[in-house]
Design a protein that fits this description.
The chain has 163 residues and is an alpha+beta fold. The chain has helices at 35-38, 43-48, 56-73, 124-130, 147-161, and strands spanning 2-6, 16-20, 26-30, 80-87, 92-100, 103-111, 136-145. The strands form 2 sheets. It has a 4-stranded antiparallel beta sheet with strand order 4-5-6-7. The chain has a 3-stranded antiparallel beta sheet with strand order 1-2-3.
Length: 163
């Protein structure tokens, strides 16, 4: 299961948590500082959605999960996609997800060829292609996750964020 958890009292730094509840278990902390820029969400959308100040980070995290879900569902068998999580000044990191006949093979990866301040959801794939990126594996661990367990974890995260 892959889950996204937030620190509701966070300040934009070290307030997003990615948790992989499989063997080996894993967690990583990231900043939400560039999250809204990446998702192309501006103040007018937050106002339009009537998001109160205590719920802004949860709103962004839910939008990120929606982006991940749409992106993962578009992966065809044998195809690989990058799912961003760490959006830092120096690099971006996230999950390399490949659809197999048994589910999804997941690895933690990053690149310093793209930076958190210079990427958004509309140009992510273009930047990956233009830079002919190969991502660095951050951990030697990899996970095989069934489709059901993967989407159950993301849905669980969204439900918790709505509380």
């Amino acid at each position: 299961m892959i889950r996204l958890i937030i620190d509701k009292l966070g300040s934009g730094h070290h307030d997003l948590f990615l948790k992989i509840d499989l063997m080996p278990s894993f967690s990583r902390t990231a900043d939400s500082y560039y999250l809204f820029d990446f998702l192309e969400i501006d103040d007018s959308e937050i106002e339009k959605q009537k998001v109160d100040s205590d719920s802004i980070l949860a709103f962004g995290a839910i939008k990120l999960i929606d982006f991940w879900t749409e992106r993962i569902k578009s992966i065809e068998k044998g195809q690989v996609k990058f799912i961003p999580f760490d959006l830092w000044d120096e690099y971006i990191g996230g999950l390399r997800i490949e659809k197999t006949k048994l589910g999804y093979e997941v690895k933690l990866v990053s690149t310093d060829k793209i930076h958190g301040y210079g990427v958004d959801k509309s140009n992510l794939d273009m930047q990956i292609e233009q830079n002919k990126l190969t991502f660095n594996e951050d951990e030697k661990a990899e996970w095989l996750i069934s489709e059901q367990v993967l989407f159950d974890g993301l849905e669980w995260s969204k439900n918790e964020l709505k509380k």
